[in-house]
Design goal:
transmembrane, 3 domains, 35% strand, 17% helix, cytokine receptor activity, 327 residues, alpha+beta, Immunoglobulin-like, binds 2-acetamido-2-deoxy-beta-D-glucopyranose, 19 strands, five-stranded antiparallel beta sheet
């Protein structure tokens, strides 16, 4: 076959855009060969060339830019009939950029190769595996899942998007669909001060602050904030009410002590010796009616003592310690 004839036939085919019947003509190469990529899922897609034969198949090769590795066939994508090929496994390293190319095959005829533009893994549209939510009081604790599984590989989101990671968080109130948006920088965060007894649905869209990249929102997940008088509130309530009780008991105790010390009373043994030495105190007879150890409320307390026969003038006396009994 002479080259002039081939060129002529090609020109005719192009000009008339008509199906050619000669076996001698090359197959048309595939068109629109491009990556459709989300993080850790890099799919190569194409469309058939003009007027493909019914038995057309495709072959895919890839190349890593900047290495001296030449075009390498993708074993899973040799003589396939589909119009896509998963190149994730061959294009994961975000330090490189990649090319892929596809050609049509029919019998023992092959088309020319059709190549992609260069592909960077960082250009892949952003996605996360999801999030897990837990409720603490009226706070939702969110933990983003950054591990992406693809085939037999596990990829960490932050290994691919190393810088300027942001998470746009959508918080939808289920009852009226009112949606709040917040931006977080950490994969673990709290959404606080939510309404009690309310259902919220959360989804997250990853972002990169430095550039516009397509992104997919995670699936929505819903949780319900409980009633106010449950959980943490209950504990808080218990703490504050017992604090108030203690305060009241303390005041009551102080009052009782102040009233008691108008009567002579047996001081604790530690104080007894001290008081004896200072000869301010005349030991009274032990009272059979009230034992000091059985007193429910005992506390170290300073109280102004009333003027007494044995103790001239007004002075401060250290009274029996009294401790708070468990309620
Ligand atoms: C790749 O580089 C190595 C080392 O420089 C060299 O030996 C080898 O021939 C190169 N291969 C190709 C395909 O250029
Ligand atoms: C194409 O393949 C057939 C067998 O499948 C063979 O007989 C024929 O010679 C081949 N043609 C060319 C041009 O290689
Ligand atoms: C993972 O899958 C790729 C092909 O997708 C294969 O070449 C590789 O050997 C597999 N690795 C393991 C550890 O199974
Ligand atoms: C909220 O949105 C859902 C679907 O988007 C709709 O079915 C539902 O009626 C909406 N509820 C309210 C209260 O607007
Ligand atoms: C979320 O709140 C809990 C409890 O209030 C706290 O222990 C945790 O440190 C908070 N986490 C973050 C990321 O702020």
């Amino acid at each position: 076959m002479d080259p002039l004839g081939t060129a002529l036939a090609l020109c005719t085919a192009l000009l008339l855009a008509q199906p050619t019947h000669g076996e001698s003509l090359r197959l048309a190469r595939p068109t629109r060969v491009h990556f459709v990529a989300e993080i850790a899922h890099h799919l190569l897609r194409w469309e058939p060339g003009h007027n493909p034969p019914s038995n057309v198949l495709y072959e895919v090769e890839h190349k890593v830019y900047g290495t001296n590795q030449s075009w390498t066939a993708i074993p899973n994508c040799m003589r396939i009939s589909g119009h896509s090929c998963d190149l994730t496994y061959y294009t994961l390293d975000s330090a490189f950029r990649y090319y892929a190319r596809v050609r049509a095959v029919s019998g023992n005829h092959t088309s020319l190769w059709q190549r992609t533009n260069s592909f960077f893994p960082q250009e892949a549209s952003l996605r996360l595996s999801g999030q897990s939510l837990s409720v603490m009081g009226n706070t939702i604790h969110v933990q983003l899942q950054l591990l992406l599984r693809t085939g037999n590989l596990t990829v960490k989101y932050d290994d691919i998007q190393k810088h300027a990671r942001r998470y746009l968080v959508y918080i939808r109130r289920a009852q009226d669909n009112r949606t709040y948006e917040v931006i977080e920088t950490s994969p673990e965060f709290n959404i606080s001060n939510l309404f009690w007894a309310t259902e919220y649905c959360v989804s997250v869209e990853p972002r990169v602050a430095s550039r516009h990249t397509g992104a997919t929102r995670t699936g929505e997940q819903c949780v319900t904030i409980g009633q106010r008088d449950r959980g943490d509130e209950l504990v808080l309530g218990a703490i504050s009410s017992s604090f108030i009780t203690l305060l009241l008991l303390g005041l009551l105790g102080a009052l009782l002590v102040c009233m008691y010390i108008k009567r002579p009373m047996r001081p604790p043994s530690v104080l007894k010796s001290f008081i004896k030495q200072s000869s301010f105190w005349v030991e009274p007879e032990p009272s059979s009616s009230s034992s000091p150890d059985a007193d429910p409320v005992q506390q170290l307390f300073l109280c102004q003592k009333e003027p007494h026969e044995n103790s001239p003038g007004t002075f401060l006396t250290l009274q029996r310690p009294f401790s708070i009994q468990p309620l």
